Amino acid sequence: MLQGFVSIILGSSPGTNRRRIMIRNPHIDPGLRRSTNSGERSEFSTKGECATMKSRCQALSCLITISLVLIASAAAQDHPTPYPKMAPLDQYLMPSPDAEVALARSAAPEAISRDAEVRVLGRHGYELAVKGTNGWACVVERAWMSPFDAPNFWNPKIRGATCFNPVAVHYVLPATYKRTELILAGLSKAEIIKQMTAAYVNKQLPGFEPGGMSYMMSKQAYLVDQGDHNLAHLMFYEPIGANWGSDLPKSPVLLGIKGGPAIPFTLFIVPVGVWSDGSPAPVQ
Q: Domains of the chain: which residue ranges?
């Protein structure tokens, strides 16, 4: 960048858009040179040297700033956020309560889900659809139950059918209901994080309890836009900082959520090779 121009190329792979920005440095200019009696060598005058060097530093700082802005702008254009804001509510709702009940129950084997409580999403939150008798509960979570920085956070296509065991029903599921109510009330992510954190601090939401887990083995679920859109798996809720060897080479355990003030647990995911109806499911 200390040469007469700066060349910035954004996007180097074949087929990608490239942008070249050439900025001439006005501080290297023949007009700033003078000849000496000893020959043709050019140099800056002593009187103007300090001012010229200061100008050079200012120019360099300006060029660095321009480069960073251009790189960030190009990256944002090449990889735009697919779901930058909440879609109209109707896109998150299912055609009928019966359809949502069936999808929710498909998260776990029938021996578990047939006697579980089921709630369905309404315009103001989750509503009781089926009263359970075995202590389990099944719901279809929407994308806003993802980590707050997830690119799919507002994806209206997500349908995460989940069945929670009795421990998770007591301390995990209330957070699903609470966050959903805040979402539907129109709060921003920052406001939701603040209120969820306060709810845990003030004991309005229960804290961590050992033994919580859930099933996500529905063949009909839609979890991501990529690939097969789905993965049959179990989820385990552990204390923040727990180490299950997740994401290590050849480890079957995946780290779902690290946890924090607004999510008081670490979530581990273990893929399984079967759907809830007993048919084979891809593990990877």
A: 5-78, 89-271
